Amino acid sequence: MSKAPPKRILVTGAAGQIGYAICPMIARGAMLGPDQPVILHMLDIEPAKQALEGVKMELIDAAYPLLAGVVATTDAEEACKGVDVAVMVGGFPRKAGMERKDVMSKNVAIYKAQAAALEKGAAAGCKVLVVANPANTNALILKENAPSIPAENITCLTRLDHNRAVGQLAERSGVHNTKVKNVIIWGNHSSTQYPDVNHATIDGKPAREVIGNDEYLDGEFIQVVQQRGAAIIKARGLSSALSAASSACDHIRDWVLGTPADGSYVSMGVYSDGSYGAPKGVIYSFPVTCKDGKWTIVQGLSIDDKSAAKMKATGDELVEEKALALECLAESALGPN
Ligand code: NAD
Ligand code: LMR
Fold first, then answer.
1. Could you give the ipTM of this predicted complex?
2. Does ligand 1 have an atom closer than 6 angstroms to the CB of 91?
3. Over the stretch 105-127, which tens digit does the pLDDT of each residue have?
């Protein structure tokens, strides 16, 4: 085993689908690299306790060289203690007959409570990635309720959408996905997100030139990426798990170890400073580069009117979600009548 001291990685909702996919990826080094030992902290809720124990047993049975320990618990404070990275996957799924507000109210309450546990126990400098939906707004609620964690340390996952856009361009052009660079996901991890190819390149040439079909890029391509989550649910009867887990590893790896030296960028949901006219005070997906464990929004990209309208629409949705989330929290603070 490497001599580096182990890093503690929290995965909430670890007994669920994404949890089952991501824990082995982390234990194999896909998140922090092949020389970094890890201790997995897995959190789930009481009804999933037995399944969580089963995941722990399998992780031990796999004898991963980088895995220096496993904590499996249903106690949020125990789970958050000393963690360097927190991947927040746990949440309440939408059930038949539930309104958007019902799901939002369950999830924001979870993220408020877990913010407190993280604030109390996480290691200084802990990096937080929220995966559970509504990912941007859960991340915002976590940020609002963990004031001692710097806002720049709290992010949400839009890398899956980014990778989906890369995958579509690679399939369409017949060029390997590693040659597709600088696609951007703007805004919310929802069907209003704007997958933007205006700065993307394929094998070093402008994506629009290589694809040679603006009607496709401005229509079907955008819709396929926006609706990919729903298409996976339709095909599998379950929401995306291996691609979500893999993209979450990409997000943290690039954040911690840096984006490529060629200056190419990736998409991350981060606390908005109002760049590109995005609303301030929400978690909005931007193009970023990362160096020395810090992300920076890529500045100076030209934005045409069509793009600006799409970026505004997804920003407006985030402002609405924020208002709804705050309303849910205010109602829960008043308690049942
Ligand atoms: P899942 O239902 O299989 O697993 C969720 C797990 O969370 C369950 O084991 C559940 O017991 C646990 N859980 C519930 N409340 C909890 C709490 N308070 N604390 C800790 N754990 C708790 O779901 P999944 O397929 O793994 O998906 C997880 C979430 O990720 C969902 O919200 C899904 O919509 C979202 N998702 C986001 C993206 C993205 O790109 N951002 C992609 C795919 C899925
Ligand atoms: C996805 O993009 O695959 C998920 O966010 C879909 C979902 O609703 O869980």
1. 0.99
2. yes
3. 889 999 999 999 999 999 999 99
Q: Whose CA is nearest to atom 13 of ligand 1?
A: 90
Tell me the C-alpha distance between 58 and 261, whole Å: 37
Residue 114 parent element (H or E): helix 100-121
d(Cα 16, Cα 12) in Å, to the nearest integer?
9
Whether 251 is catalytic? no
Preceding omega of 134 cis (within 30 degrees of 0): yes
How many angstroms separate the CA atoms of 147 and 268, rounded? 21
DSSP H helices, 125-227, are: 135-144, 159-173, 207-211, 214-218, 220-226
Q: Is residue 12 a contact partner of residue 88, using CB atoms and an 8 Å limit?
A: yes
Residue nearest to atom 4 of ligand 2 (CA): 229
Gyration radius of the chain's alpha carbons: 19
Measure the CA–CA gap between 95 and 98, rounded to whole angstroms: 6
Beta strands at 38-43 and 67-73: parallel, antiparallel or unpaired = parallel
- Amino acid at the residue 11: V
Residue 240 CA to ligand 2 center (angstroms) comes to: 6
Global pTM reads 0.97
User: What's the CA gap between 100 and 233, in Å, rounded?
Assistant: 18
